[in-house]
Amino acid sequence: MGLLDRLFGGGKKDSGPTFTYKVGVSDTCRSVAKRFFGDESQWEKVYKPNEWRLKEEVQSGTDRLLPGTELTIKGAKFGLDGQPIA
Predict the structure, then answer these.
(1) pLDDT band at 68 (very low <50, low <70, confident <90, very high)
(2) Cβ(26)–Cβ(81) under 8 Å?
(3) CA distance 37 to 16
(4) What SS3 string covers the chain?
(5) pLDDT for 46-62, tens place per residue?
(6) Cβ contacts of 40 within 8 Å, gap of 6 or more
(7) For 27, how many CA atoms within 13 A lie in the half-sphere containing its CB?
(8) Longest distance between any two alpha carbons in the chain, whole Å
(9) What's this model's pTM, rounded to 2 decimal places?
C-alpha cells in the first residue's frame, strides 16, 4: 500500500463478515441495508455487490426485490440474527 492509499484510505476494504441473504417478501435494498448496516441510506452497499443479479430481479416499477433472490452482503455491522457484530 502506497503513501496516498494510507492517507486517503485507498485499497481499504469493508471490515466485517460476508453473508448470503435470501430476499423476503417486501424487501428492498433500503430495508436490507437497514437490517445489516443499521441505516437505510447505505442501500448502495447492498446494491453494488449484487448489481449484476439485481438488474434483472428488481420488480418492474417498484424498488422491491424478488423474494428468493440471494444477495451477497459484505462488511455488515449486524448479523443475520440482528445482533451487532463484535
Answers:
(1) very high
(2) no
(3) 11
(4) CCHHHHHHCCCCCCCCCEEEEECCCCCEHHHHHHHHHCCHHHCHHHHHHHHHHHHHHCCCCCCECCCCCEEEEECCCECCCCCECC
(5) 999 998 888 766 656 56
(6) 30, 31, 33, 34
(7) 24
(8) 46
(9) 0.76
Who's near 24: CB < 8 A, 6+ residues apart?
A: 67
Q: In CATH, which of 2.40.128, 2.60.40, 3.10.350, 2.20.28 is domain 15-74? A: 3.10.350
Identify the bridge partners of residue 5 per DSSP, sorted by sequence position: none
Per DSSP, the three-state class of 20 is: strand
| pLDDT tens per residue, range 17-27 | 888 999 999 99
Q: Return the ∠ at Cα 86 (arms to 44 and 5), rounded to 5°.
A: 55
> Residue ranges of the alpha helices (H) in 38-83?
44-47, 51-57
